[in-house]
Amino acid sequence: MMITRRGCLASAVAAAALIAAGSALAEGAPFKMGLLVPGSVSEEGWNRIGFNALKGVEAELGAEVSYVELQQNPASFEKAFHDFASQGYNVILGHGFEFQDAALAVAPEYPDTVFLISSSYISEGNVIGLNTDTSQPFYLMGVIAAKTGKKAGLVGGMEIPPIKEAFEGFTNGVRSVAPDFPISEVYIGNFTDATATKEASLSLISQGADFVLPNASGATVGGFQAAAESGENVKTFSIFSDFTSVAPKNILGLYIADYARGVIRIVGDIKNGKKPTTNVEFGLKDADVMQFTYNDQAANPVTENVRKYVDEVKAKIAAGEIKTRQK
């Protein structure tokens, strides 16, 4: 059983001490974590990343875990949070910015549960945002696009902050190399329709884009399919998971977020009674979380000179010398 405020009325000092230890478990009680994902965990990409984090917590922290796959329905988000919290789950991860409002609505009813929200900057009570600053690796992709291409096309799922921030990073990376480099940006309005991502990407390619970058969660694969069908001169970058098999000649490299490592670190702290007091942000400085590599089997692989330049930029971003987006 968890320590609650009800048992902390002896003194203000005692109350503060017990609340600080509020996430510590009573002897013998299981530590439990739940996960909400906006789609299927069977798909490579964003949802799989959340699932891998959950399984990492199970394996490394000995937690009891469970997850639910949801569509874009805010009412179902609140119900899922209620269901987990009412069953005594200690931590619930809403894997995406879209879960933030539902968490804020439900969290006050369950003060002993920590609600973590991926791709969020929230820090209100027991609702804490975990953000992987994708503007940083996307900035590097922008540098590569400007040095290897003629025009870029960006295809997003929904126009929400995490997608816009990633594309802002890409654009800033491009502008750092070639201020007049043309960039087109479109959104398909969802995170599930891979056909829509493919059609949008093909449209941008027909308009002259030779570097396309899809960022649409479960629908992302459509952009890589479009690149593969458009010839080896169309370049792209695999994001979040390894899609190289879809477009092996087009994908110049991979940005993989080992989000599990960061989540395990934070959840481990919570299990030990140390809840984050601010939102948590992972970046290129966190080498265990962010991995940026190249595909030497691409038809037009990134040259050594460009790689050397990108490494220099990467080091400056990690050191805080280059800001990849407005905060």
Automatic annotation (TrEMBL):
Residues 1-26 form the signal peptide. Gene3D superfamilies: 3.40.50.2300. Residues 32-324 form the ABC transporter substrate-binding protein PnrA-like domain. It is found in: Cell membrane. GO terms for cellular component: plasma membrane. Keywords: Cell membrane, Lipoprotein, Membrane, Signal. Its main location: membrane. The keyword Cell wall biogenesis/degradation does not apply. It comes from the Bacteria. It is a lipid-anchor. Belongs to the BMP lipoprotein family. This is BMP family ABC transporter substrate-binding protein. The lineage of its organism: Bacteria, Pseudomonadati, Pseudomonadota, Alphaproteobacteria, Hyphomicrobiales.
